[in-house]
UniProtKB/TrEMBL annotation:
K(+) binds at D237, T239, S273, R276, G278, S282. It comes from the Bacteria. Catalyzes the phosphorylation of ribose at O-5 in a reaction requiring ATP and magnesium. The resulting D-ribose-5-phosphate can then be used either for sythesis of nucleotides, histidine, and tryptophan, or as a component of the pentose phosphate pathway. Keywords: ATP-binding, Carbohydrate metabolism, Cytoplasm, Kinase, Magnesium, Metal-binding, Nucleotide-binding, Potassium, Transferase. It catalyses: D-ribose + ATP = D-ribose 5-phosphate + ADP + H(+). The active site is at D243. This is Ribokinase. CDD domains: ribokinase. Belongs to the carbohydrate kinase PfkB family. Ribokinase subfamily. It comes from Streptomyces hydrogenans. PANTHER family: RIBOKINASE (PTHR10584:SF166), SUGAR KINASE (PTHR10584). ATP binds at N180, T210, L211, G212, A213, A214, G215, G242, D243. Its cofactor is Mg(2+).
Length: 295
């Protein structure tokens, strides 16, 4: 099974012609609330791709909390260990302008209360095939979760987003690091993704750098770099492409499929998601991925 230790957020998205300047009020065109958060997105992606998935994290005691939990349960993600804590859920306040540019304020809310693991959390992690982590929970609990997985012989997959300087003790317990191009550069100071991937191999044994429409680059110690192209699609909305990629990749790796095959399958899942609007609602089901890949 796959366990996600990560965030849930309600995305509150206002669409406007031009974003307001400080002190200014503008009338928007439309508004949507979209369940998200990197952790929840990866959990839904993995569940839709056919994985058995459980989520550890927290939602608030507000209405958003109900909806965030409900979205996960609706996708068959086990939420027994998703806490409900007094106070607001995590929110992302997003203004999207007519040029597709955006400005975002993320308020961690309930996510910020996840500072330690319960015995139940630890038992769940210890019994998993893979643990998926991102950086939208307090860093200390991310390190604790990954360290516990490592001690239990469970493979850890870290998405280093939102990107920030990472302590060596986190790299030490990361098996597979999956940055996008921007994150790979921020972590290493190398603009070239090949150079960044090789630099990251000095701190973790396996790296996948995702390259948007250009696919991804896989690096492992003692092996040649592997470039996997992405299927060509007309991109409508690339929100959560990376989370879809990681969720599907986790399913394939959890089934013991070879890395090149797992990367092609994950790339196909992500490409399918960018052809449709939305985050979790755009993520493909297993049969769609298999059909698109022709398997
Ligand atoms: P993030 O969403 O985290 O910024 P990327 O933009 O690198 O990450 O996208 C992650 C993965 O999603 C890519 O490796 C690729 O497989 C797929 N993807 C993203 N954009 C496209 C696109 N325009 N066409 C096809 N696949 C895409």
């Amino acid at each position: 099974s796959i366990v996600v230790l990560g965030s849930t957020n309600m995305d509150l998205v206002a669409y406007v012609a031009k974003a307001p300047a400080r002190g200014e009020t503008v009338t928007g065109r439309s508004f949507r609330t979209i369940p998200g958060g990197k952790g929840a997105n990866q959990a839904v992606a993995a569940a839709r791709a056919g994985g058995e998935v459980a989520m550890i994290g927290a939602v608030g005691s507000d209405d958003f909390g109900y909806r965030l939990r409900d979205t996960l349960e609706h996708c068959s993600v086990d939420t027994d260990l998703l806490r409900t804590v007094e106070g607001p859920s995590g929110t992302a306040h997003i203004v999207v302008d007519d040029e597709g540019g955006n400005a975002i304020v993320v308020v961690p809310g309930a996510n910020g209360t996840v500072t330690s693991l319960s015995h139940g959390d630890e038992a769940l992690i210890a019994n998993a095939d893979l643990l998926l982590l991102q950086l939208e929970l307090p860093l200390s609990v991310v390190v604790d979760g990954a360290a516990h997985a490592r001690r239990s012989g469970v493979r850890t997959v870290l998405t280093p987003a939102p990107v920030q300087p990472l302590p060596p003790e986190l790299f030490d317990v990361t098996d597979l690091l999956v940055p996008n191009e921007h994150e790979a550069t921020a972590l290493t100071g190398r603009a070239d993704p090949h150079a960044a991937a090789l630099a990251l191999l000095e701190v973790v044994p396996e790296v996948v750098v995702t390259l948007g429409a250009a696919g991804c680059l896989y690096a492992a110690r003692g092996a040649d770099l592997l470039a996997v192209p992405a299927p060509q699609v007309r991109a409508v909305d690339t929100t959560a492409a990376g989370d879809t990629f990681v969720g599907a990749l986790a399913v394939a790796l959890g089934e013991g499929r070879p890395v090149p095959e797992a990367l092609a399958w994950a790339g196909t899942a992500a490409a399918l998601s960018v052809r449709r609007e939305g985050a979790s609602t755009s993520m493909p089901y297993r049969t769609e991925i298999d059909t698109a890949l022709g398997t």
